[in-house]
């Protein structure tokens, strides 16, 4: 299917209704539709959703033109696009209940096919010890052949990516915005380095899209979906990291948290670690032996 078609329909009616159109067979892999045929499909959808407002033919034409321009401009920036109908669309993102139906990417999409992948995440304001742990985790699992997944955010995400890159490993960054502008801006060089080292930047959002609260949550969902397991370096009880944790639990991904010295236990960004250890089946990680045990658990899960 032409990616501009799926993009057009998302732009017109939104991701959720587009997903419904796909699931109910209005669109399929072999479909190539013009604006009138798109309108007919959407009108048929109204038969099962009477409250749905059908866009005009002029709006559909304008959306097609806009979609094609955005895809063209994306290509000029080295940004590619793939949809759930394409053979190269990652299974990890379509085999979840709240599946992706379109992603933009920059770099090596093959990273997203690898079974051995691990998310390293946490607060934007880690302790000095947390910074070292994040980097050490990135290095260790990259050496063991894992793709490191994170969100390019300041703090723990940065150190997880950095540890992986220290040994020329491959890492994936999921972004809450269009790939024409990295977020946060101070991590532009890190984003470029990820691509240069055969890693990949991905987003569900077209160029020109700014970050928002819901987009951060949705990018956290991608981190969990792409990973065998999720490691929390440091986090507060109420923070964005917990969104990824909840998605990991929803997708039955194995959760691990970094253990900290008792002297640090009153620090706000450690309390989330303690909460997860006490209220979930998260594994505690404090040394290389723990890292190895967790690695073995993840690898065993691949063969099940």
Automatic annotation (TrEMBL):
Domain of life: Bacteria
Signal peptide segment: none
Gene3D superfamilies: 3.40.50.450
Positions of the Smf/DprA SLOG domain: 82-290
Xref: SUPFAM superfamilies: MCP/YpsA-like
GO biological process: one example: DNA-mediated transformation
Family assignment from sequence similarity: Belongs to the DprA/Smf family.
Protein's name in the database: Putative DNA protecting protein DprA
């Amino acid at each position: 299917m032409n990616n501009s078609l799926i993009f057009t329909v998302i732009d017109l009616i939104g991701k959720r209704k587009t997903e419904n159109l796909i699931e109910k067979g209005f669109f399929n892999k072999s479909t190539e539709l013009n604006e009138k045929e798109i309108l007919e499909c959407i009108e048929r959808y109204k038969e099962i959703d009477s409250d749905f407002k059908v866009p005009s033919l002029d709006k559909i034409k304008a959306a097609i033109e806009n979609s094609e321009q955005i895809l063209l401009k994306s290509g000029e920036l080295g940004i590619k696009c793939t949809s759930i109908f394409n053979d190269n669309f990652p299974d990890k993102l379509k085999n979840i209940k709240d599946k992706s139906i379109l992603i933009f990417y920059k770099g090596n999409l093959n990273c997203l096919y690898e079974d051995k992948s691990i998310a390293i995440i946490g607060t934007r304001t880690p302790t000095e010890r947390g910074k070292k742990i994040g980097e050490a985790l990135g290095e260790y699992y990259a050496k063991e052949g894992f793709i490191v997944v994170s969100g390019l955010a300041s703090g723990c995400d940065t150190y997880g990516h950095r540890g992986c890159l220290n040994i020329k490993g491959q890492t994936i960054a999921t972004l809450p915005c269009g790939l024409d502008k990295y977020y946060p801006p101070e991590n532009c060089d890190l984003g470029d380095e990820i691509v240069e080292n055969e890693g990949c930047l991905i987003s569900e959002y077209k160029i020109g899209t700014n970050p928002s609260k819901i987009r951060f949550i949705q990018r956290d969902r991608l981190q969990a979906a792409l990973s065998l397991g999720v490691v929390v370096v440091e986090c507060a009880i109420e923070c964005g990291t917990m969104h990824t944790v909840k998605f990991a639990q929803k997708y039955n991904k194995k959760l691990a948290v970094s253990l900290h010295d008792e002297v640090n236990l009153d620090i706000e960004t450690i309390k989330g670690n303690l909460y997860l250890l006490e209220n979930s089946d998260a594994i505690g990680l404090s040394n290389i032996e723990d890292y190895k045990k967790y690695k073995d658990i993840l690898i065993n899960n691949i063969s099940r």
